[in-house]
Amino acid sequence: MNAIIYNTKQTLLLAQNLLSTSIRWASKKTGGSTRNAKGSGIKKHRGWKKQDGSWVESGSILVLQRHLRFHPGLNVGMGRNGTLYARIPGRVMVTCEKPDLDWEHTWVQRCYSGRENTTFYKKYFNVMPNKQHQNFVLKDQV
User: Fold this and answer.
1) Element (H, E) at 20
2) Which of 52, 56, 119, 142 is the most buried (most CB within 10 A)?
3) What is the DSSP letter of 132?
4) Residue 113, Cβ neighbours under 10 Å: how many?
5) Which residues of 46-82 are buried (b: 16+ CB within 10 A; e: fewer)?
6) According to its record, what are the GO cellular component terms (predicted)?
7) Confidence class for position 70, pLDDT limits 50, 70, 90
8) Per-residue confidence band for 28, with pLDDT thresholds at 50, 70 and 90
């Protein structure tokens, strides 16, 4: 009987020691390594960068996008990652138009597959240049 009580007492002490030891979970260590850093990372802040009516220079980024939400219009180019940029200096003009899409383009296939026969409207970014002067001087008459 004495041996059973002694064994039970030892078992309880052993269990208490096991519970008091620290347990490591999957979390960031206190220092040194940055392998399992916490957080969701830096946000990308995609969307409109220049508003309707604002002045832009050549090469200015107008829109950052992951999917084809906005389309390039007059004097606007589209980068490989979907970025819309101004090709010439001028004023930004945003219009809502019915798109005439190139269905062979990979971006169009990825974003609009299955919508070939439906009518929809998309936002187009255009850059309008300043009006040129009309003051010309006649130098020589033929």
Assistant:
1) helix 2-20
2) 56
3) P
4) 9
5) eebbbeeeeebeeebebbbeeebebbbbebbebeeeb
6) mitochondrial inner membrane; mitochondrial large ribosomal subunit
7) very high
8) low
Tokens of 84: 């819309």
Q: Any idea what the Cα angle at residue 93 is, between residues 43 and 78, rounded to 5°?
A: 55
CA–CA distance, 125 with 60 (Å, rounded to integer):
12
Cα(108)–Cα(66) distance, integer angstroms:
13
pLDDT above 70 (res 117)? yes
The C-alpha atoms of residue 35 and residue 29 are separated, in whole angstroms, by 9
Tell me the residue type at 75.
Answer: N
